[in-house]
Amino acid sequence: MSELKAIRAAYGEALAELGGRDERVVALDADLAHATYTCYFAEKYPERFFNAGIAEANMVSMSAGLSAMGYIPFCSTFAVFGAGRAYEQVRNSVAYPHFNVKLAMTHAGITLGEDGGSHQAIEDIALMRVIPGMTVVVPCDAGEARRATFAAAQMNGPVYLRLARTPSHVFEEEMPFTLGKANVLREGSDVVLFACGIMVKTALDCARMLAQENISAAVINMHTIKP
Length: 227
Hints:
By secondary structure, this protein is an alpha/beta fold.
């Protein structure tokens, strides 16, 4: 049985570690800190944590202001609210002036169980991709979520980190992580499966099933959707 760990939990741990390395890092949340795991950061650095309440658009605007003052804001809530409800603020207050805001949104996709359709962000990648200057990253496991969090902090400009909710497979081998550069996880000569996020593990499983049918499938982990 492989290790299972929620990608959002790995993000929370990485953010707290990042806060200890760089005092410019601040965290904002929309009253969901224990769901997005920004609570780890809040416990360590309460003076740099801002709970905006259930006011996602205001939270994104706050992060834009903090960025203008030289901070590196990490802004978190559920993806359906951060990328959907606050879209205008993301577009006009963060991306248009190219502010250094990191939008780390959890509970993305359809694997939300009892939360239901109202909380399932299925449009967020499309919304973020069309914004000029926005970097879009979808980590495939806990380890990649950690590396993506640090990489986002090191680059200048807006980043959308799409983070899954449910515990998922953790790859034993640590994959190299470079923004904008995909990883070949399996070589193949007949077909190529491109995947991101928790679907990377599914793509590898599919490749093994295809191999039983004498079909050689390569698998590419496309963790950076844009660029």
